[in-house]
Amino acid sequence: AVVSTQSRSRYFFLFSNEGELSVARVLDRETLEKVVLTIKVCDKGKTAKLCNEYDITVEITDVNDNYPEFLEPLTFNVKEDVKINHSIGKLRASDNDPRP
Q: pTM higher than 0.90, yes or no?
């Protein structure tokens, strides 16, 4: 069978004779979650080729590639006569990687 892609993709390349789908450029899950490719497959019939189209979904999974950052300033004011164990603030941090 001969396989070809009907949709243009900057991210994937299809080797039509082998049917192998390969990554064509660097992927980043935070900017691209999935790509849907329309693939056409045809047999090698001599008189009449039979073809069919399929939508192939490629979902990009994430790797932990973003450093956490604090969401607020890191300066706190505290009076010198504050009691021990008195809370003076809360630190909050986050990163752009999706939660598992």
A: no
